[in-house]
Amino acid sequence: MSTAWYALLGLFFATYFVLGGYDYGTGILLARARTAPERRAMLTAVGPFFLGNEVWLVAAVGILFGAFPLLEGELLSGLYPAVALALAAVLTVTASVQLRSRPASDVAKHAWDRVIIVSSTVAAFAWGAVLAGLLQGVPGHVFTSFALISGLAFVALVATHGAAFLALRLPEGGFDKIGRKLAPLALAAVGAATVAGLLSSRVRGHAHRLPVVIAGLALLVVCLMVARVTLGRRNGVAFAATSLALAVPVLLVGATMWPFSPVTGLTVADAAASGPTLRLLSWLAVPLLPALLGFQAMCWWAFRGRIDDRAPVYW
């Protein structure tokens, strides 16, 4: 049962990175919008999904606390600076998106837009550093060169994902062209992070499943190449490719750490809660997972397609 909950934990975090990724990617790409109507259209495109996407993070954290209390304690204590930075940035993004439309002044709205851009970038960077910290082991220095480069690579991945999302949702704006420019940049950043990992003795010592690492990196490269080729032609395929690209790092870290985590010195079974606790949580998860999936499917079906002048404005 502990293995099933470990897989469910990975699924929830991967889904959060995919769904929250285009939120933060849209926030980062606000920097290229030159006019207020362009920024308004970008936020309108992401508006129906924004708060629903954050639910997956709350659910993933709940699983971590409830099903893996020992793992949660080790990770939060060892990766506290990166985790705290990520959560602070997530809260700032959420608040600033909802507050930007309150003031009537264009100057104030533009100031909130800058907050969204910075906090979205920081959130993506910090989550990349958290994933890198899991690979290099905790406790220890969180912001090593590997973690810093991995954080920048995750920012590039998130920005590419955001461009694919906006190309799918906006009638115009040239985001397919932006995505085609960002995909090679993301590839280069992933390559730099890979080199930094190979040069780090800590990463080599903790990433003990080399075939999984190679397969994950190969899949990531393929996803970015597919996105580069299909953007502007088949935007749905490009968005699916960037979605998978954001899920791959979580799956790679989870598979590398299973079943024995050199990060905590515990097996997955040792880090899990007791059998009765997991069974009780299973009864709670049975209705929760279909509800979350159904809500997400309903949102995407209700707001499918490109936005137009009749699209509701949320923020």
TrEMBL record:
Intracellular or extracellular location(s): Cell membrane
Pfam family, one: Cyt_bd_oxida_II
Entry keywords, A to Z: Cell membrane, Membrane, Transmembrane, Transmembrane helix
Entry keyword annotation includes Transcription: no
InterPro entries (UniProt xref): Cyt-d_oxidase_su2 (IPR003317)
Organism superkingdom: Bacteria
Membrane topology per record: Multi-pass membrane protein
Membrane-spanning parts: 6-31, 43-67, 79-99, 111-134, 146-170, 182-200, 212-231, 238-260, 280-303
Family: Belongs to the cytochrome ubiquinol oxidase subunit 2 family.
Protein name: Cytochrome bd oxidase subunit II
Taxonomic lineage: Bacteria, Bacillati, Actinomycetota, Actinomycetes, Micromonosporales
